[in-house]
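Q: Sequence in, structure out?
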Amino acid sequence: MFMSLAKERTLNNNSFMSYFKRNYDMYFLLIPGLIYAIVFKILPLAGIYIGFVDYNMFAGNSPLDAIFASEFVGFENFARVFKKVAFTRALTNTFIISFMKIVCVFPLPIIFALIIHSVHNRYFKKTVQTIIYLPHFFSWVVVAGIFNQILASNGIVNTALVNLGILNEPIIFLSHQGLFRWVLVFTDAWKEVGWGTIVYLAALSGVDQEMYEAAVIDGAKKFQQLIYITLPSITSTIVLMLVMRVGSIMDAGFGQILVMYNPTVYKVADIIQTYVYRIGLGQMDFSLGTAVGLFNSIVAMTLTLGTNYVSKKINGRSVW
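A: Exactly. Output:
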């Protein structure tokens, strides 16, 4: 028995080495990605320790020495975090804004992809894809500048609403606590729906056309083809995108909110990441900022694993 196991292990090793020799160039292509992951993703994990100490940047000869020379306080920083009203508010805003985006924005790329896929004019399809995909390449700074002009008190939206008699006076959308979250949802949809649409169109292009031909012979209408062929065929892609989206709930749009919000809407727009930015960098409280960031990462990982598990249990499809 032991001889057979040893022989099998040797065969597996030989199999891997032979595969490596045949495809060594593909493994070399992994090196830049691995270096990036190690330098920017793995090595910085050592900084988590700052969340468990009373960090003093002057405690050592270098920032790295200062981390280990600072006084260890255990979970004291986490206790401080949970007692802060601003943290509770930021956590609540993070969940609210993320769920608003999931409910309102997540279905849109699927709908757009289904509509575009049903169009037979090739040039029209490519033109529409290009137009809706273009905003994805704009930075949030550019998008914020565009909508600052559009939603300004003398912008095109306020001018139209006042002229139509819908408003008596202009609204400052980016400083209105009741409307600012919806501005975030709308601008996120305007910028990112095109990218999601391309993903679903790629999935739709892989659907077996013979299934549609058989459905037509059986007398199935367009809606029936959509329900029984199209949607089931792209379910795995939808699940993948949903798991990724739920996993990023704790990232409610840091770049977007940072360049669009202001102190008048902190109450409804300050999220975990902007809170970490203001506390950790703005107030130089690195220990508290690290503690909040670690809490944020743990919750995000839990949500990702939980969503993947639930998806696997319900419909047998998951990312891993």
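The two ends are 33 Å apart (CA to CA).
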